[in-house]
Amino acid sequence: MDKKSPTLIERTKSYLKERKKWIQADKPLRTQSKVNDIFIKYCQPCQYYNGSSCNICGCFINTRMVVNKLVWATTQCPGTPPKWTEEVKELTKKIVDKRGNKITPSSPTQGRRRCCG
Ligand code: SF4
């Protein structure tokens, strides 16, 4: 571990910021397969992974589909440069249909699970 884990206040701020972004994007979720891929390929071997969370953002990192930063499809690695990126950046933009109604595109999986922080 190269970095001290963030304080509870820093973790809470990070969680609330990510949660707001996720809600604004209509709560898109990654699939279990994608969560596993990111965890195994990037987080598990990462120097900032402390066995339960990321030492940069403080969010919980694992392969479960709850209380896990990797589940929200709007999250990305806080490293510089990020080792993995959000999948739904384009989907977070509001789109106006032909009749002028604002619509928010959905990701392949959506839900209301708590999965970060
Ligand atoms: S989110 Fe990024 S910096 Fe944090 S443990 Fe995973 S790969 Fe490492």
Reconstruct the topology from this structure.
Elements (H helix, E strand, L loop, with lengths): L7 H17 L3 E2 L2 H12 L51 E2 L5 E2 L5 E2 L7
Antiparallel strand pairs: 1-4, 2-3
The structure holds iron/sulfur cluster.
Iron/sulfur cluster binds next to helix 2.
Task: Give a summary of the structure in a few sentences.
The chain is an alpha+beta fold and 117 residues long.
How confident overall, as mean pLDDT?
Answer: 81
Q: Unreliable stretches, pLDDT < 50, 5 or more residues?
A: 105-115
Which percent range describes the beta-strand content? 5-15%
Give the structural class. alpha+beta
Q: Give me the Rg, rounded.
A: 15 Å
Instruction: Give the CA-based shape.
Output: globular
Sketch the major β-sheet.
2 strands, antiparallel
Helix segment tally: 2
How many DSSP E strands? 4
Q: What order do the strands of the largest sheet run in, or round the barrel if closed?
A: 1-4
State the helicity in percent bands.
Answer: 10-25%
Number of domains: 1
What binds here, in terms of ligands, is:
iron/sulfur cluster
Provide the succession of SSEs. Answer: HEHEEE
Ends apart, CA distance between termini: 19 Å
